[in-house]
Amino acid sequence: MPTTPVVELENLKVKLGRREILHGITCRLGVSGTGKAVGLLGPNGAGKSTLILALLGFHRPSAGRARILGMDCRRSMGEARSRIGYMPENDSFVGEMTAVTFLRQMAELSGLPPKAALEKAHEVLFHVGLGESRYRELRTYSYGMKQMAKLAQAIVHGPELVVLDEPTNGLDPAARRRMLKLVADMKEEQGMNVIVCSHLLRDIEQVCDEAVIMKDGAIVHQCNLEEERRSNRSFVELEVTGDDRNLLTALPEIGAEGVAEGGGRWRIVLPPGVEVEAIWGLAARQNLLVRKLTHRRDTLEEIFLKAMGHLAHTPGEDSPVDAGRT
Ligand code: ADP
Ligand code: MG
Questions:
Q1: Whose CA is nearest to atom 15 of ligand 1?
Q2: What number of helices (H) and strands (E) belong to the chain?
Q3: What is the CATH T-level fold of the domain 7-227, as seen in this structure?
């Protein structure tokens, strides 16, 4: 039985004021069933939040169509409330409310009866690690706790789809890992579908099964990360000392290909089934001393940089991917 795509856009245009922000987007996302995450990746200002707000019925399209879970976004999205959870990019709390009251109200607004709403509020606050602080007023929460409370209100009513706008923005590394783990559990253990908007490549890489890359109000690339992962190609960044002039012609010995970047630095692609140990053997046979070897299984960075028109370079662990950076 064919499943309904999570998102279906047909020439979707959105104007804010007199400016057109989304310029006729057409795509189908989340066609592969439940328990999957779709990533919207793009630099700040690309139009990710605008697209999300249009999908949730907050911005009316100026042309084209948008469907979410098969529902037309031009219609009243009232019925969508129980089926969709939304974590906005900015805080939208009443600071004087305790977390538990806030969550209970959000659950009721999404259609749960009062008793179930209260039970779920407690349960979800424990689930996101705010159990001990659940009777505190939200204004006393730290930034990281507020992000978790925002996530909690998005999932409190047990929606089938959760839309997260920049969920890890501003989090320290430990909180960021916790957030991404919660997102992964939502899809893997609870079978929810997730849409994650982020300007951080690593977020999308870690939790998403497919991704679209947005730039200037358009989609510049769509890729299936699940397939990429299955194909199991891996990327190695290598730095060697010694005469590496013969390395390029030696790489096919292990089925690999690569480019020299000068100063003993190489970027190498390993085919499926070839482990990174093969590089050590090859380097030894070439009398090269390995100074540094980093290994990644993903390709989104390459795809992203190409889509953005950047030359390949090596951003650090959490590099944002703003188009404007140098
Ligand atoms: P992203 O979420 O990818 O960072 P946004 O969707 O927030 O991007 O913004 C896309 C563009 O739309 C930006 O140029 C932004 O300035 C503009 N924009 C966003 N919201 C509004 C608004 N309410 N009115 C006018 N322009 C807006
Ligand atoms: Mg945004």
A1: 45
A2: 10, 14
A3: Rossmann fold (3.40.50)
Query: Hey, what are 241's tokens?
Result: 């000392």
* Contact (Cβ atoms closer than 8 angstroms) between residue 212 and residue 27: yes
- 314 has pLDDT over 50: no
Ligand 1 contact via 58 beta carbon (within 6 Å):
no
The owner of tokens 């590089």 is 279
Please tell us whether the domain made up of 232-308 is placed in CATH 3.30.70. Answer: yes
- Express each pLDDT in 158-192 by its tens digit: 999 999 999 999 899 999 999 999 999 999 999 99
DSSP letter for each residue of 229-249: HHHT-EEEEEEEES--TTHHH
Q: Kindly state if the Cβ of 50 falls inside 6 Å of ligand 1.
A: yes
Q: If we measure between CA atoms, which residue out of 19, 11, 21 comes closest to residue 53?
A: 21
Name the residue at shortest CA distance from atom 23 of ligand 1: 16
Radius of gyration of the chain (CA): 22
Q: Does residue 171 sit in helix, strand or coil?
A: coil
For the chain, the structural domain boundaries read 7-227, 232-308
Instruction: Report the C-alpha gap between 300 and 305 in whole angstroms.
Output: 8
